[in-house]
Amino acid sequence: MKLGILFSGGKDSTYACYLAKKNGYQIKCLISIFSENKESFMFHTPSIEMVKKQAKVINLPLIIVKTKGKKEKELKDLEKAIILAIKKYNIKGIVTGAIESVYQSSRIQRICNKLKIECFNPLWQKDQFELLKDLIKNKFEVIIIGISAEGFNSSWLGRKINKNMINELKDLNAKYGVNPAFEGGEAETFVTNCPLFKRKLKIIGYKDFGEGNSWRREIKVK
User: Fold this and answer.
1) How far is it, in rounded angstroms, from Cα 162 to Cα 141?
2) How far apart are CA 85 and CA 80, in angstroms?
3) Are 89 and 61 in contact (CB under 8 A)?
4) HSE-up of 186 (CA within 13 Å, CB side)?
5) 160: Cβ–Cβ under 8 A, 6 or more apart, which residues?
6) 182-222: per-residue pLDDT in tens?
7) Helix residue ranges per DSSP H, the chain
């Protein structure tokens, strides 16, 4: 089956793409939404422009649709992007990196139902600690580029997901109820290397924005 990937450049959408390909699906394109609203209810925003670099090292075409990011209205722009993928690449379904977000998954499913295509969520309800371990096991190099939750601060920006971080997240989960895979919006991530990439992406610059326990890092890669 020909599929498109709803792609943010973060760990979940990239890992979902990896699993879909590993299970024999034909991945025809990546689909990214560039939101003007940094607090979008639906879409990842930190360093979103860098998905262009990721698409090149994955060697897949990238469909980009911009949105103002207004709640619910931004779904029209997502639908527009999926329609473009259907017309251009004849996809029969899409893949998402949703783990527990009913808000996101239900709305994406509704669009798929309307367009009569399949919706695959390979990470749905997966144990979040196991997901982080699987990323490490499958040689995913993932860094933190956004944080927004009690227990975090700017020192987390740029950190790589590894075994030490998993142990820290266990403590934060116990103390503050933090979702270890950040499904509650606690953090945003960026994949610099994984088995899908032809080569590793190198960070050549960044700027940090924020205060307290709410920060984002805008990176440049090559």
Assistant:
1) 9
2) 9
3) yes
4) 18
5) 141, 142, 143
6) 988 899 999 999 999 999 999 999 999 999 999 999 999 99
7) 11-22, 51-58, 74-89, 102-115, 128-137, 163-176
**pTM of this prediction exceeds 0.90:** yes
* Residues paired with 147 in a beta bridge: 187, 215
Look at residues 188, 168, 178 and name the one whose alpha carbon lies nearest to residue 8: 188
Q: What is the pLDDT of residues 38-91, one digit of tens each?
A: 888 789 899 999 999 999 999 999 999 999 988 888 999 999 999 999 999 999
Domains annotated for the chain, with CATH where assigned, are: 2-120 (3.40.50.620), 128-221 (3.90.1490.10)
First to last CA, the chain: 32
Please state, in angstroms and rounded to a whole number, the distance separating the CA atoms of residues 198 and 140.
13
* Residue from 90, 88, 109 nearest 98 by CA: 109
Cα dihedral value 111, 81, 47, 130, nearest 10: 40
Q: In the structure encoding, which two tokens stand for residue 87, read together? A: 């017309």
Which residues 6+ apart lie within 8 Å of 19 measured at CB?
A: 122, 123
* Both tokens assigned to 119: 């919706």
| Alpha-carbon Rg for the chain in angstroms | 16
| Residues 95 and 109 sit within 8 Å (Cβ to Cβ) | no
Using the structure block, give the residue that is written with the tokens 């590793």: 200
Buried b (16+ CB within 10 A) or exposed e, 133-152: ebbbeeebbbbbbbbbbebb
Give the residue carrying structure tokens 């075994």: 163
